[in-house]
Design a protein that fits this description.
- The protein is mainly β.
- It has one domain (16-86).
- It has no helices and seven strands.
- The protein is globular.
- 18% of the residues are buried.
């Protein structure tokens, strides 16, 4: 399966945050996040680097940290409360 690179998006946010597993502190993503507030969802097209080997599962402690879903028709990961934190 070929992951197509995130295409430059004129209105896409430019701030990137690092997303970590709250249980074992392993980095999961580098993500282009828009707006303020906590990380509730990650649109897949905005993930810059994905360090997971299986979707939504921490590679280190195997905790499920998100659900694979569609948000307004766009593939995204919906974060499970308290499972991740962003810096």
């Amino acid at each position: 399966m070929v992951h197509n690179m995130a295409k430059p998006n004129k209105k896409g946010p430019s701030t990137t945050v690092d997303v970590y597993c709250s249980q074992c502190k392993t980095q999961l993503f580098k993500y282009r996040k828009g707006g303020k507030g906590s990380l509730v969802k990650c649109f897949k097209e905005r993930i810059v680097d994905d360090f997971t080997s299986q979707p939504c599962i921490c590679p280190e402690c195997n905790q499920v940290f998100a659900r694979d879903t569609l948000i307004r028709g766009t593939p995204a990961f919906k974060m499970i409360g308290g499972k991740v934190f962003a810096k």
